[in-house]
Design brief:
The protein has one helix at 2-35, and strands at residues 41-48, 59-64, 70-74, 80-86, 89-96, 103-110, 115-117, 120-121. The protein is an alpha/beta fold.
């Protein structure tokens, strides 16, 4: 009986210790992932026209009001755009495309870890009406 207890303890001790070691490593890796924080925000939205149709190919710019740093992108086929990794601060956002009136949104705050959604509902330029 004493021999059986020793075998059972040894038999379970090794797998249990390995299992505990694996659990500790996984927990340490998970907690280090949780400890990582973002240092930027996101600016995203959609550009549509007067009939609520998507406007692909529109140029969108975010301009840092304190530094003048500019990021530029173009809307996709569904009129959507996204800027990721935007440092926190206040930004002017501009929208432009031939045939449409330019649009400007002033001093929008971008916060760490947050998504700022700015949608543009455009009017056609008077001389360029479809």
């Amino acid at each position: 009986m004493g021999f059986m207890k020793g075998v059972i303890r040894v038999g379970f001790a090794r797998p249990v210790s390995v299992l505990c070691a694996v659990a500790v490593c996984l927990a340490a890796g998970a907690s280090s992932g949780w400890a990582q924080t973002s240092t930027a925000g996101t600016v995203a939205g959609q550009v549509t026209d007067q009939q609520n149709a998507a406007v692909p190919g529109a140029q969108v710019r975010v301009i840092d009001t304190s530094t003048g740093a500019t990021q530029t992108t173009v809307t996709n086929d569904t009129g959507r755009y996204i800027f990721s990794q935007v440092p926190p601060g206040k930004y002017n956002i501009t929208f432009s495309k031939e045939g449409f009136s330019n649009s400007f949104v002033a001093a929008q705050p971008v916060d760490v870890g947050a998504v700022l959604t700015i949608n543009a509902d455009w009017k056609w330029a008077p001389s360029q009406r479809r």
